Request: fold
Amino acid sequence: QSTIYRAGTLGRRPVVPTDFAELERRAKRASSAEAWAYVAGGAGEGRTMRRNRAAFDRWAIVPRMAAGAVDRDLSTEVLGTRLPSPLLLAPVGAGALMGRDSDIAIATGAAATGTPYIFSNQGCNPMEECAAAMGETPRWFQLYWSKDERLVDSLIARAEAIGAGALVVTLDTTVLGWRPQDLNLGSLPFAKGLGIAQYTSDPVFQEIAAERARQPRERPKVTLGAIRALLAMSRNHPGSFWDNLRSPIPRASVETFLDIYSNPGLSWEHLATLKRRTSLPVVLKGIVTVADARRAFEIGVDALVVSNHGGRQVDNAVASLDALVEIRAALGPEPALLLDSGIRTGADVFTALALGADAVLLGRPHLYGFALAGAHGVAEVIRNVVAELDLTMALTGARTIADITRDRVRAEPGTA
Ligand code: FNR
Reply:
């Protein structure tokens, strides 16, 4: 914290703004309209996104004085691994909208601060290359459950091979939410094949795509639209799109991806197979109810990410911070609960931890850092959030993460 603070007081201006509002403004200026719509946008009217933030405003931090919290330790253990701070980087798909080799850059920036990065199944660089960029820093892998069980197993095997610390299965995106900003621009990258590097680099996926290519008459109707969109995409984003895919993707790959990347019929029966399919700790992401949380721990998962996908899936949904409070109250202190959706500042991290999160994930902010200054920008965003958390601890009398207890926050009168 002190380095950033001193630089500021000595008149040095950082490349990456230290507050979220300015970070967002600058990232918007650095992005194309299509990239901004996808990354910054939310579902429907944007109510879930706003509610995520409003939930933080309904809690107030209660500073304690003269507590002598001089030497602070922000490290904490998550799933058996000690992390330098209770912060991880959330998986983000299609980051290459904001610049080439997005996932390698984000992985590099995360590693510069020892912060784990959760590689998205919809990432823009193969997970093996991202892992290589991280050295010893923990990396996790996020899976979207494919319609093809062979692909599920192949992705899990690759995650194990890159030394992933956990397998995160995202449940809230079996179909993509209603995203008017993208729809109005006709620019949803997802349907256009952006972010399919984990698939095209997968041997099982390649086999499936090849099998399908040998059966031309079975091509789905989306094909022509997808190819047209793909061409439009390559015009809209010269460079980044093709560069990230290394070579023009065979048509069969795009079709196969669109057909099998997700299983809308995903059920608890599928999820119950996870613990015998992998030796990795299993984390379910996207849970916002007590009932689902209980069910998850019943099938033996190791942790949850309480999340509404940054407000990108269901409009007017429950704020993830509110869901965390309910789930922690119902399940007690033991189960590992991570939180994302709406974390913007160190004070937010403090509030989430006080309300029962063991750690938090940062989503859009790290992508904005990437948009502004690549890997360095990602590292700076992390450092700023951690620095503010550190100062907040100093000023509230918390020496360790374990000191950030429930009594460090209280509900705003008349709200919670
Ligand atoms: C996401 N998110 C996401 N989640 C996931 O499990 N797999 C994915 O591929 C993606 N892709 C993705 C792309 C973009 C551009 C964004 C902004 C988000 C959701 C992400 O992991 C996380 O839940 C939210 O971003 C957290 O909310 P905030 O911090 O953005 O408010």
The chain has one domain: 2-411. The CA atoms of residues 52 and 393 lie 23 Å apart.
